[in-house]
Design a protein that fits this description.
Length: about 250
Amino acid sequence: MRKKIVAGNWKMNKDCDEALLLFKEINSLLQNTTAKQVEVIVLPSFIFIRDFVSLSFKIAVGAQNCSTEDAGAYTGEVSAAMIRSAGASYVIVGHSERRSYFSETNSMLSKKINAALKNNLIPIYCVGETLNQRNSGNHFKIIEQQITEGLFHLNNEQFKKTVIAYEPVWAIGTGNTATTSQAQEMHAFIRKVVAQKYGNDMANSCSVLYGGSCNAQNAKELFACPDIDGGLIGGASLKAKDFVQIVQSF
Ligand code: PEP
């Protein structure tokens, strides 16, 4: 059985009071639900991680990024070791906003994956094509390249700990969710690419999340697809009721 996951990427939203309020609301709504076996993760700004970990009832906490480096003179960076020491258990690596606004390359991201695993953080590795890449028929090639260059240096033990999120760039924050057939097709392709390198068992046990305008209305349909194991949620994770409804969409 693959792990089902719903992860809320809060991006650069909420001040201290707002963040605490939202986290407490999600926490208490989840306490009163009988959600099936779903790993719920909240990924806020770094500065909230420690507080959230200490307040959490059954929510795992993660970061949205980490440094490639262990420590040293890298002003403004946050290392995977620091994130782990704050109590987080996950980290997003390679979100499309990091790839495009901060020029993060597959090769740089492979180092972040190593830093995460070395510090016992589970990386959620994001892949996704732009609309141009899809329209020109290059989307499968792009996804394969992102996976190969970002993850395929890992050995079996390391790969086993990694989560993949398919997030078509054209669907993020746009309201243009991928159709279930577009999402399912790419998730099945990702599993095929993984199988070629690590074998069928690994491909079948790896959690692959969908992200891109997933919300309380469309989550059920997306999560019903055979190769979709949950979602990485942006906008809708900032509303407690919507987020919890997504968690209950399996
Ligand atoms: C994201 O940024 O990871 C994301 C999926 O955003 P949204 O749900 O807002 O499209």
